[in-house]
Amino acid sequence: MPRLxxxxxxLALLLPVALRAQQPVSAxxxxxxxxxxxxSPDLGALAGLGANxxxxxxxxxxxxxxxxxxxxxxxxxxxQRLDAVVRFQFDPFAQRARAVYGGAGVGVVRGxxxxxxxxxxxxxxxxxxxxxxxxxAAELTLGGGVRLGVVLRAKRDEGR
Length: 160
Known about the structure:
Order of helices and strands: HEEEEEEEE
CATH class: Mainly Beta
CATH topology: Porin
Distance between the termini: 35 Å
Radius of gyration: 16 Å
Helix content: 10-25%
Strand content: over 45%
Strand order of the largest sheet: 1-2-3-4-5-6-7-8
CATH architecture: Beta Barrel
């Protein structure tokens, strides 16, 4: 865990420098609902809510909280997650119907017995075309296992 704490501290110190290099944009939050299927190391399903803000035209900083159940040791157990992720948008101006994004972050997982573990996360996703005021996305998250997620985000007034 000390290695994870050091990495989180370095990222926290570098974030203000990276954010100052970005152009000023609206900081209104973009709300999201997510449903994740945990595929490894244990099978499970989680649902949650999150929000992200623009950190320039290309970057998004988000926080999502999820809860659900995982199948562990021949029984279903509850699990909660809190993930903080910085995403890079490859098409921030919504010039195409679909857009790929990638990101990294840290997560905290709390199991049924109250044990808490930290995770480093890598995220790859694709946002689809807006359907009314909703933008659907599919995500693959690696970090302490593999998760596949479906995310429904509120549409931004301009861009992604």
